[in-house]
Amino acid sequence: MKHHYLVTLIIGILAMSGLKAQENTNLIKLNILPLAAGNVAFEYEKAIQQRISLNATLSLRPKSGLPFRSIWESAIEDPNDILGGAKFGAFSFTPEIRFYLGNNDALRGFYFAPFVKYARYSLSTILSVEEPDYQKEVPISGALNALTAGLAIGSQWRLGEHIYLDWRIIGPNYGFNSGTFEGKIQLNADEQEELRKQLEDFDIDVLDLKKEVDSDGVTLKTKGPFAGIRTALSLGYRF
Question: Which helix (H) or strand (E) holds 38?
C-alpha cells in the first residue's frame, strides 16, 4: 500500500512538473500595421521547443472602399475609374514554423520562418454604360483566391513580464491565384461595345486578366502566378 501511495506521489510530482514546464509557452498578438487600412490581424504562437515555435496568423478585412488609393493607382490602369466606387474585402490564414537563433529562451530573438499563406480577396464594383437616352449600371462582383509559400525573417523582444513586440521584417512569398468576377445582365450590341472599350483600358499589372463581354453580361477571370510580401509589427501577451 505504501508503494501505491509513493507511485501516486511520484506521478503527481511529474505531472505538476510537466504542467510547470508548459507554462508561458503561448503568445497572442495583434498586428498594429494593417489597422490603418481596416484590416485586423491576430496571431497565436506556441513554443514547442526552446528555439522552435508554431505561429498562425488570421487576417480579416470587412468589405469597404479601397484603402490607400494612390498605391492602387500606381499598379492599375483605370482611366474610366472602374474601381472608384469599388468595395474590397479580404481574408487570409497563414501558418508558419519559426526557428529562433541564439541562446535566448523560447519566443525571443531573431528568427526565420517558412510559411504557407491562403488568401481570399473579394471585390464588387459597378460599370456604367452611357447611351444617348439612358444609363445602365452593370454590377460586378467576385473573388480571387491565392495560395503562396515563402520565408519570413524577423525579431521578437520581451518588453515586460508578459508583453512582447514582434517585428516581422519581411516575408516574400510566391504561388498562384485563380479568380472570377461576373456581372450577369442582358446587354444589347451597343452596350457590349461600350463595355469592351472600357475594359480594354483596364489592367492590373500583377494579374493576367481575361475579359469577356457578351449578351449575358461581363466576366473577368484571372489564373496564374501570384506574389506578395508579408510584414508585421505586433504587440503580444505571453501566457
Answer: none
**DSSP 8-state class, residue 132:** T
- Strand-pair partners of 159: none
β-pair partners for 162: none
Residue 234 C-alpha cell reads as 505586433
Q: Which positions ≥6 away from 1 have C-beta within 8 Å?
A: none
Instruction: Locate 232 and state its grid cell.
Output: 508585421
| DSSP letter for each residue of 194-212 | HHHHHHHT-EETTS-EEEE
pLDDT tens digits along 109-134:
999 999 999 999 999 999 988 888 88
pTM score over 0.85: no
Whole-angstrom distance, CA of residue 45 vs CA of residue 27:
5
3-state secondary structure 87-117: EEEEEEEEEEEEEECCCCCCCCEEEEEEEEE
Q: What distance in Å separates the CA atoms of residue 30 and residue 43, rounded to the nearest whole number? A: 6
**Strand partners for 214:** 217
Distances (CA, A) of 120 to 150, 155, 162: 17, 28, 33
32 φψ region: left (φ > 0), alpha (ψ -120 to 50), beta (else) = alpha
pLDDT tens-digit map of 23-79:
689 999 999 999 988 899 999 999 999 899 999 999 999 998 877 666 666 667 777
pLDDT digit string, tens, across residues 136-176:
999 999 999 999 999 999 999 999 999 999 999 999 999 99
Whether the CB-CB separation of 53 and 98 falls below 8 Å is answered with: yes
Q: Which amino acid is at 212?
A: E
